[in-house]
Amino acid sequence: MFGEVYDVIVVGGGHAGAEAAAAAANMGSKTLLATMNLQTIGQMSCNPAMGGIAKGQIVREIDALGGYSGIISDKSAIQFKMLNKSKGPAMWSPRVQSDRMRFAEEWRLALERTPNVDFYQEMIQGLLLEGNKVVGVKTSLGIDIRGKAVVLTNGTFLNGLIHIGDKQFGGGRAGEKAATGITEQLTKLGFESGRMKTGTPPRVDGRSLDYSKMIVQPGDAIPEKFSYLDTPVLTEQRDCYMSHTSTLVHDLLKEGFDRSPMFNGRIKSIGPRYCPSIEDKINRFADKDSHQLFVEPEGWDTVEVYVNGFSTSLPEDVQFKALRSVVGFEKVKFFRPGYAIEYDYFPPTQLKHTLETKLVENLYFAGQINGTTGYEEAASQGLMAGINAHLKLNEKEPFILKRDEAYIGVLIDDLITKGTEEPYRMFTSRAEYRTLLRQDNADLRLTPKSYAIGLASEDRLKRREEKERRSAALVSFFKKTSVIPEDINPILDRVNSSLVKQSDKMFKVFSRPNVTMEHMMELKSVSDYVAENDLGREEMEQAEIQIKYAGYIEKEKNNADKLHRLENVKIPDNFDYRKLKSLSFEAREKLEAIRPVTISQASRISGVSPSDISVLLVYMGR
Ligand code: FAD
Fold it and tell me: How does it assemble (predicted)?
């Protein structure tokens, strides 16, 4: 590896780095994954779970694009749940509980099996530059490794500082050292950096817990999975459990507040709003006597347990005493106390849509370094950075997903257009076209695009085409076939829907609220069609959604088309906003700083008002 010139060097083997390396290599780039510890590739720093609300959709999108996170999640799952199943399909979100050790092992093996990926274990301390172009990296031993593009995915490691009570020490994660040098070099080059913080709960010994006092939380009776490929479906699952805190637990925790780095001013940076520490919850929701705790096994065989909901940086003795007062935890033994970590990030408005930095050519940032939180957010950025680094080196058009095409598009557009001052996590509410961005259709939306740029395999494309063809055929079967009152009325009666007096098209009755595919399957002609055509769950679900949500889907498509019109009005690269005197001062400043590429992107910048957009449109002759 010494003396070699790589196409793409990926720094960091976390979720972003692993996806970046896989994507670049699978597209044909000679890739080096340089990371501090090869044993921690794909390490889950916090909760042993993938997916969840909006995050599950992202994992499905990564999979549809040919990334590995969905496959790895399926191979290492111990429990599956489709969240929000009682709501409309735009809200359905797959989530798995993962075997933490197996997850990391599967990542390492998947990368080892990927041609074009070399590995190197060492801390990268700086970048090699020629003018404003990156040409490689420098290791802590002083070795120069040359590469045409570099993707930085340092996660929580840049000048990481761990806090437990009044103790603090440098570290990128429990038991791992912090990364130094990179922030200092980048800020000298003119990059703006900031600090964020996040926290994690204690890990405990499952043998010391009394599960009989807790509420069992089983997985779905019929588990699904993430990948659109032939990955395994769970045949058995591990249960999770639920317990809760009490006023006694809160009082015990409060005893440590004066030694809490969160409250005595030692931690100054902002943490994830939607993942607060237990001390934060007690403080912010003082009227609540109890908070839920989810007790999650860390794997199939290990006795280690993750106490979801008890993230804390209070002194370890306070954590321990308080946790022993939780129902079922009376005899708890610690594997490791919880802690908080502060780390450097780079405000993502310094990036282009490709995740290439505006300041240094061929340098890409992905993952927590961009101010996001979460494995899924990180992995998807890594994938996009790896793809775009490869495309740019090969002088191809950039690969950018629009807001109506993918959650990944929403994520990246939000980051680079609006920036973020607190750890950014994805929510369904961030996507204005969420009826289009469902977990069931990520393959329909994205696989052809990825195949066209040379990442998704032909096998993926074929499966996607089969699914589209067969689900469309089922929809047209419902459109063509009629049902007689004798057959359908007993079903309609059961779901409190008005009865039909004469035979009617199946499509029409199926469109009614409360009538589901399960009901339709009670009709012999439907179950015969499904059996004869050997239709699977995904194809039937797809047909059902197309029928029942046709109106909503159409409406969102129309809205998205309107947006595309603004998306097509490009703003020239070096546009001089100062000459537009009628722009507000704030708009001019923000537009200068972010330099949107289209009018549509400009309209999403906070501080740019509709009247500023009108000024721009008039200037562009629209
Ligand atoms: P990471 O997974 O952090 O991976 C970074 C990788 O880069 C590591 O392999 C590291 O060894 C390597 N590396 C770093 N610097 C260098 C260097 N200079 N040279 C070589 N290698 C380097 N997310 C949530 O969604 N909810 C939470 O509650 C939550 N809590 C967290 C609590 C803690 C304590 C931590 C540490 C993380 C938490 N996270 C949480 C965040 C989640 O772990 C990250 O969002 C995700 O792992 C980010 O992925 P990444 O690839 O960007 O970075």
Answer: Homodimer. Heterotetramer of two MnmE and two MnmG subunits.
User: 613 and 529 in one domain?
Assistant: no
**How many A from CA of 514 to the centre of ligand 1?**
44
Q: What is the pLDDT of residues 213-239, one digit of tens each?
A: 999 999 999 999 999 999 999 999 999
Check if 313 has its Cβ closer than 6 Å to any atom of ligand 1: no
* CA 272 / ligand 1 centre spacing (Å): 14
Average pLDDT over residues 386-407: 97
- Please enumerate, by residue number, every residue annotated as part of a binding site for FAD: 12-17
Q: Mutation test of ligand 1: which of 153, 161, 180, 185 has the most ligand atoms closer than 8 Å to its C-beta?
A: 153
Q: Is residue 471 located within the same domain as residue 585?
A: no
Same domain, 462 and 589: no
Q: Would 467 be classed as within a structural domain? A: yes
Distance 237 CA to ligand 1 centre (A): 27
Let me know whether 574 and 537 are in one domain.
no
pLDDT in tens, 327-375: 999 999 999 999 999 999 999 999 999 999 999 999 999 999 999 999 9
The pLDDT tens digits for 537-579 are 999 999 999 999 989 999 999 988 887 888 888 999 889 998 8
pLDDT in the model for residue 1 = 62
Please indicate, yes or no, if residue 426 is contained in any of the structural domains: no
Domain extent, residue 484, equals 458-555
- Does residue 550 share a domain with residue 490? yes
Question: Can you tell me which atom of ligand 1 is nearest the CA of 382?
Answer: 51
Does residue 305 lie in a domain region?
yes
Question: What is the CATH classification number for the domain harbouring 263?
Answer: 2.40.30.260
Can you tell me the mean pLDDT for 92-99?
97
Does the beta carbon of 101 lie inside 6 Å of ligand 1?
no
**CATH number of the domain that residue 615 is part of:** 1.10.150.570
* Rounded CA separation 61/441 (Å): 9
Q: At 510, which CATH number?
A: 1.10.10.1800
- Ligand 1 centroid to residue 158 C-alpha, Å: 10
CB 416 within 8 Å of CB 52: no
| CA dihedral of 442, 445, 448, 454, whole degrees rounded to 10 | -60
For ligand 1, say whether the CB of 36 is within 6 Å of any of its atoms. yes
What total number of domains does the chain contain? 3
ipTM of the complex: 0.98
Contacts 24+ apart (CB under 8 A), 104-110: 104/39, 104/40, 104/41, 104/42, 104/43, 104/44, 105/76, 106/42, 106/72, 106/75, 106/76, 107/18, 107/41, 107/42, 107/68, 107/72, 108/38, 108/41, 108/42, 110/22, 110/68, 110/71, 110/72
